[in-house]
Amino acid sequence: MSVPRSVAAHRQAVVELLTGVSADRGKLRLPLLEALGKALAVDVYAPLSLPPFDNSQMDGFAVRSADIPDGGAELRVAEPVPAGAAPAALKPGFAAPIMTGAVIPEGADAVVPIEKATPNAFPDPAAGEAVVVLPSVAPGTYVRDSGSDIGKGELALVAGTRMGPAQLGLLAALGLTTVEVRKPWRVLLVTTGDEVVEPGKELTAGKIFDSNGTLLEASMRQAGLDVVRTGISDDDPSKLLAVLQRHTGPAEDRVDVIVTTGGVSKGAYEVVRQAMANQPVEFLPVAMQPGGPQGLGTVEGVPFLGFPGNPVSCLVSFEMFLRPALSQVLGTPAQRPVLKARLAESLTSPEGKHQVRRGTMGADGTVRMEGGAGSHLVHALARANALVQIPGDVTELAEGDEVEVWML
Ligand SMILES: Nc1nc2c(c(=O)[nH]1)N[C@H]1C(S)=C(S)[C@@H](COP(=O)(O)OP(=O)(O)OC[C@H]3O[C@@H](n4cnc5c(N)ncnc54)[C@H](O)[C@@H]3O)O[C@H]1N2
Ligand code: MOO
């Protein structure tokens, strides 16, 4: 019986396994929204400045600050400047009603918010000439300078950046409609087990629906991977190996990583273990629960990860090993946010095993457990928003104790 490997050592082994894969699958030009979650393939430089022109930060009056001495001044009201208009220059002695985002007229160098004007409402342009009394204002007040966010020609996003909402929003602000991203890695995902049937099919005695396929495909897609599914493999090892080998050849069908679920522990029909008998794949215990039994190696040179079959175990395996390793090797996906939280309840944990409980982080910084430690508890998993990390040397924690949580 081999000594269980630590969580950190197993994660490092996954990193090393993936480091051997060529990270460069080429580039792909996609419409912005289809690039969500993918990694930028090239540096992007700003084709224009942001803001593109000096503009007002407030609804108010654009003024020449030199026109207003300490104590304020009465100025004549000029033509209003709505957002989107190209205004005329501001004459000395005038104040132009200006809206947030509108171009600062030539000659103006500050904005006085409408709340500080007397009267504190914009005059009706149809009512003829008007005057307004304004307090003095320093040059530059409430003016958003052209290029103050980014200047034309500056580096907007560096190659490798993960395209989230903010990054895509920036590219849209720069007027871009498409972006070059790294072609995502392709993962072959195979769920196994004679007892497992596709959702939607008939559930006969002793059978259960396949939750792992959906759970892991969703996790992988969220992490920016392309997923190839084969359907559920039964308990025939030679058939399983043949399925995997269809995706390990030099052709188009070759994948970058293979992930299976189930068939890795100590039962009499461990299909994944048996299928890997002549492949450089190691089956080993990791000192973690859920996700203790793991398979790791290569099939015809393609990295292979054999996750355990329990649904929570395979999700935890993905979050603890594959997702962080991808972040490290590819730069995407982003790491899960790691927080400290206070336990809302006491708990116990098995000695010598890093336990990953599922919990809900509250707004008050406490975390409460969702369900028990069992790795079959998919309903409790669906209520959780965090993985609660309990190190292997901790066996008891009291309410209020601090724990590390990974936000899902
Ligand atoms: N004698 C021992 N038995 C077990 C050990 C052990 O060390 N000694 N380890 C236990 C632990 S921990 C885990 S985790 C599981 C891992 O088992 P396998 O990876 O071999 O997976 P299966 O036996 O195929 O399935 C386990 C469990 O999960 C259900 N399952 C499987 N696939 C799916 C799916 N696609 N969707 C939903 N549920 C699935 C399956 O029906 C089983 O209930 O082994 C323990 N046993
Ligand atoms: O380690 Mo298994 O993954 O508990 O359920």
Automatic annotation (TrEMBL):
> In which pathway does this enzyme or protein participate?
Cofactor biosynthesis; molybdopterin biosynthesis
Annotated GO biological process: Mo-molybdopterin cofactor biosynthetic process
- Name the coenzymes or cofactors required: Mg(2+)
> Can the keyword Disulfide bond be found in this entry's annotation?
no
Q: Does the keyword Magnesium apply?
A: yes
- Residue stretches making up the MoaB/Mog domain: 188-328
Q: Give the reaction(s) catalysed.
A: adenylyl-molybdopterin + molybdate = Mo-molybdopterin + AMP + H(+)
Matching CDD domains? MoeA
A GO-annotated cellular component: cytosol
Any idea which UniProt keywords this protein has?
Magnesium, Metal-binding, Molybdenum, Molybdenum cofactor biosynthesis, Transferase
Q: What is its EC number?
A: 2.10.1.1
The record's section on InterPro entries has:
MoaB/Mog-like_dom_sf (IPR036425), MoaB/Mog_dom (IPR001453), MoeA-like (IPR038987), MoeA_C_domain_IV (IPR005111), MoeA_C_domain_IV_sf (IPR036688), MoeA_linker/N (IPR005110), MoeA_linker/N_sf (IPR036135)
* SUPFAM superfamilies to which the protein is assigned, alphabetical: MoeA C-terminal domain-like (SSF63867), MoeA N-terminal region -like (SSF63882), Molybdenum cofactor biosynthesis proteins (SSF53218)
One Gene Ontology molecular-function label: metal ion binding
Name the job this protein performs: Catalyzes the insertion of molybdate into adenylated molybdopterin with the concomitant release of AMP.
Among NCBIfam families, the record links this protein to: Glp_gephyrin, molyb_syn
Name the family the entry cites: Belongs to the MoeA family.
This protein's name: Molybdopterin molybdenumtransferase
Q: Which organism is it from?
A: Paenarthrobacter aurescens (strain TC1)
